[in-house]
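re the bet — no i am not wrong, look at it urself. input seq straight from the record:
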Amino acid sequence: MTPSSSSSPWPSSPPARSRRTAYIARNTAETKIQVSLSLDGGPLDLLPADDEAFTNDDSAEPPQNQMTKTHASQMTASQQIWIWTGVGFLDHMLHAWAKHAGWSLRVRCRGDLEIDDHHTTEDSFLALGTAFTKALGPRAGIARFGHAYCPLDEALSRAVLDISSRPFFVGHFAFASPAMGALNTQMVHHGLASWAQSAGVTLHGRVREGGGEAGYGRGTGCGVGG
């Protein structure tokens, strides 16, 4: 007699997990930001086009057409990434982070860059951390701790993460130059600290080697390791 499924000695397969996604709109006096995130990659809806912050014709940035290929975009079957903050190296960092995390991510920001890059960087990371928290959902039953090493040319970066709901950040990067493109290197530390705060995680990041020369490998490693 064929045994019924209820009498099978083998455990049943767990139900397929739905993709963990979130959309965040964060508007302040200094910045207008949209973030759409899928922690599991895959297709991602376009950012809403009816937000007044992005429908004015007085600026060509960010591009209105999100299918436009930019310096920080990729479209594959497994990942869709499109980043535009107005700060090129910040776009590059966020793109690298999403790519190596397996995320699909869309970020669009209009910030007060006529002043500096502070609010754009800080608020982009805050919005991304909020989206991470919303997409992750309940934290029970997840792998709480994780770490990664990233060798990029002269720089070897390490990141250690605890999804603890106790936000804290420690970073040691020792940039030799004050900026990478239009991104102030001080904003790398501040941005990651802002992400840890809004994501509710403890994050330790360090560039272990690099000789203190050019900051490109150090900065990119901070994004990839994060």
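see?? The two ends are 55 Å apart (CA to CA). told u. also Residues 118-136 form the longest helix (19 residues). so pay up
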